[in-house]
Amino acid sequence: MEASETRTQVLPGNDGAWGAATLLSAVGIEKAYRRLGRRRKRAQVLAGAGIELYPGEVVGLVGENGSGKSTFMKVLVGALDADAGTVTTRGRIGYCPQEPLVYSRLTCDEHIELFGRAYGMPDADVRRSRNELYEGLNFARYAGVRVDRLSGGTLSKLNLALALLPDPDVLLLDEPYAGFDWDTYLRFWDLVEARRARGKSVLVVSHFVVDEHRFTRIVDVRDGRTWSR
Ligand SMILES: Nc1ncnc2c1ncn2[C@@H]1O[C@H](COP(=O)(O)OP(=O)(O)O)[C@@H](O)[C@H]1O
Ligand SMILES: [Mg+2]
Question: What is the pLDDT of residue 15?
Fold first, then answer.
């Protein structure tokens, strides 16, 4: 998807607010999961959640385990249909899922090639971006290693690199640094800051109070709603 395009996903429900600078807007998002073994009983996870993302900000998405952060992010990226609400996005969206979606028999290089094609990137752009990410996250030495031979930390690096590869306008990262050591954790924030400085927008699911100073603002997921701090 080119940066000039606007994708509008209209789900049953409300209309979204939309300003000229908005990169992503979600309004009135509702989502319930069916409970196993309890017919007709549904667990309401999101009940009117919403968010807006603007260029040049890094927003932290926080909340207790099971509060619905991952569900919300999946709805934002279009990986999961909501029951109600509207998501409107502008430009390219990058998504780093909490659980890496990778192919155990493919190497890091092969993943990057595959995702680069899926994103419709020219080969030269894939190579440039790949080299920058290998260096930025310090895992070039695993380029030719199959994913099922990688440590958890290196797998997390690949998962993150696949989201960063097309240099998306909006980056949605679901606990991207699980398994990172301190050096990688700092490298991760350098990459995020470099994107923010170029006017990109980054939404990060985070647990750590220690991250608080890194965010432009924080959004809490609680009782199925989103609360700005
Ligand atoms: N596919 C699913 N089917 C049924 N319940 C789910 C599913 N995914 C998540 N849930 C439930 O929805 C709630 C929110 O989950 P999740 O969005 O993963 O929360 P968080 O990311 O904040 O920890 C939890 O109670 C979880 O068990
Ligand atoms: Mg989660």
Answer: 41
Can you give the residue ranges of every domain in the chain?
A: 99-167
pLDDT at position 207 is 77
Among residues 66, 48, 54, 63, the alpha carbon closest in space to that of 11 is found at: 48
Tens-digit pLDDT profile for residues 194-224 = 999 999 999 999 876 678 889 999 999 999 9
Amino acid at 166: P
Give the residue, by CA position, lying nearest to ligand 1 atom 25.
66
Return the residue whose CA atom lies nearest to atom 11 of ligand 1. Answer: 66
- Give φ, ψ of 38 to 5 degrees: -125, 95
C-alpha 123 – ligand 2 centre gap (Å): 33
226 lines ligand 1 (CB under 6 A): no
3-state SS of 54-85?
A: CCCEEEEEECCCCCCHHHHHHHHHCCCCCCEE
Q: Give which of 167, 166, 227, 178 is closest to 207, Cα–Cα.
A: 178
Average pLDDT of the chain is 89
22, 24, 28, 33: CA torsion to nearest 10: -170
Chain segment 45-77, per-residue pLDDT in tens: 999 999 999 999 999 999 999 999 999 999 999
